[in-house]
Design brief:
Blueprint (H helix, E strand, L loop, with lengths): L2 H42 L1 H4 L3 E7 L9 E4 L2 E5 L6 E2 L10 E6 L2 E6 L5 E2 L5 E2 L1 E4 L4 E4 L2 E7 L3 H22 L1 H7 L14 H4 L10
Parallel strand pairs: 3-4
Antiparallel strand pairs: 1-2, 1-11, 3-5, 5-6, 6-9, 7-8, 7-10, 10-11
Length: 208
């Protein structure tokens, strides 16, 4: 190989390496920007989405470092996928790791397809309900639940919606209310009172 050809190939390799590094940097910056915009959007839309709190990283590494915060809405999915509602970018976190839902008792977290979950004592669990200040392990990442605003209002909203769902059958079938509540039934009296007998002197009534 001549000296000129060697220099051309070396220069091309340098440019290719520089372009690859630039592509990696641009992609990482784009992903970070999308994540930050998503978090900001969730915070702005908290009254509509029912933002209930945050999951704070207490033990972690890689791209899930200690102190990072993940907004938590009323229900959704935890995982490494970009479609996850709580996206934790860590090698120990699966794309779809767990599902969560705000209930009357707290934030209920359920494992997906046997993905590893651990409680505050580092014991493996398949399902756990977290209250304010509760700890959970998602893979090798330890998270602390912090309920923001007024947790009792969030729980009260869930209760109101649950009662509304329970009242839906009555709205669809109003007669059901009267059938299921004896005091509201309108039934004929088996021994109706004759008004004429009330004023009959023989029955002790007043003589008008």
């Amino acid at each position: 190989m001549s000296q000129g050809v060697y220099e051309i190939l070396a220069l091309a390799a340098r440019y290719a390496f520089a372009a690859l590094m630039l592509l990696i940097v641009i992609r990482a910056w784009r992903i970070t920007l999308i994540d930050s915009r998503r978090a900001a959007q969730l915070r702005r839309m908290s009254p509509q989405t029912g933002l209930s709190g945050e999951l704070v990283v207490m033990v972690g590494d890689e791209k899930a470092r200690r102190g990072m915060r993940y907004p938590v809405i009323r229900e959704g999915m935890i995982g490494a996928s970009r479609r996850a509602d709580v996206r934790i970018r860590h090698s120990s976190v699966r794309r779809r790791h767990a599902y969560f839902q705000l209930t009357e008792d707290g934030l209920k977290v359920r494992s997906h397809a046997g993905a590893p979950l651990r409680d505050v004592h580092n014991r493996p669990v398949k399902e756990i309900t977290l209250r304010d200040g509760g700890m959970i392990g998602i893979g090798r990442v330890r998270l602390l639940l912090v309920l923001t605003g007024a947790p009792e209002e969030a729980v009260a909203r869930v209760r109101r919606e649950k009662r509304a769902r329970q009242d839906e059958p009555f709205a669809a079938d109003p007669d059901r209310m009267f059938r299921e509540h004896p005091l509201l039934r309108h039934e004929a009296d088996p021994n109706p009172i004759n008004p004429d007998e009330l004023f009959n002197p023989r029955n002790g009534g007043d003589d008008w």
